[in-house]
Amino acid sequence: MDNITKFENLYDTITFNKMRRLIVVFISAIPFCTLAQERDTTFKLNSVFVNDSFKITIGQIIKTPSDKTFFPVYTLDGDETFTGSKFALNALNNLAKNILIVSIGYGAKYGQKTNMRDRDYSPIKTDTSSGKKFLQFISEELIPFMEKKFELRNERTLVGYSAGANFCLYTLFTNQKIFTNYLAGSIGSSLDSNYIFDKIGKAKLRKLKTRLFISSGSKENWATEKMISILYSLTNKNQNLISIKQRVFDGQEHGIMGAYTFLKESLRWTFIEN
Question: How many CA atoms lie less than 13 Å away from 244 in the CB half-sphere?
Fold first, then answer.
């Protein structure tokens, strides 16, 4: 457990800062013409539910110019994951769909005062956290706003890593129909096992073509154990109502490359293999 805590602390303090520098190297390999056709937009969106504003960054990946519709991909930890998600999608061979990346951020790095990740990604309401309100912001404010601005397909994707994966699972078992694809990478140590198992037990799953990609690194004992427990709990509950893809990435730990490997493989599974 001490090693896992160490990985969590390392991730929280340095991973996001390093990820930006690492992704810059990756992006240099993308042809200029590929990036030139994409347009990024950033704006603030106020939330009545959370009583706060969020930094929303939108990236258009246009693979079929004649098609004016987009498949929306909503990413958590948007201040840090937007660039990695964009690169991962651009790197997919044979991607023929137009993708709209909608990253949800704070305009601040993790650990800075105005980054409210700890408040928003916790599904259990306390004096300082309420994932329920954050989910209301996404489902009742952000998604309707985006659907007024863009012609979006009904097949929505939610992407979360670490604590973001916890929130991703919470969303799936709270209101399955909000998203079609739930991509949860490297469950964070803050996940309350009893709480999420209770949510699974009470979840009213329906056959809605829902897909779950859940993964961990082979060096992440905590995340792997949690993932296996969740999959076991779903065995009897699921009854083929959810299509599940589980991966353990060899040699990966909770950090920079683990996050990028998750983004790359989960998005490939979502848009190429399905």
Answer: 20
Distances (CA, A) of 263 to 83, 175, 200: 11, 23, 25
**CA R_g for the chain:** 17
The domain spanning residue 260 has which CATH number? Answer: 3.40.50.1820
Domain total of the chain: 1
pLDDT class of 38 with cuts at 50, 70, 90: low
| Residue 239 banded pLDDT, cuts 50, 70, 90 | low
What's the rounded Cα separation, in Å, for the pair 61 and 37? 8
Residues 103 and 56 sit within 8 Å (Cβ to Cβ): yes
Q: Which domain holds residue 240?
A: 2-273
Go through the chain and tell me how many residues it has: 274
Q: Residue 253: which of 226, 224, 225 has the closest Cα? A: 224
CB atoms within 10 A of CB 6: 12
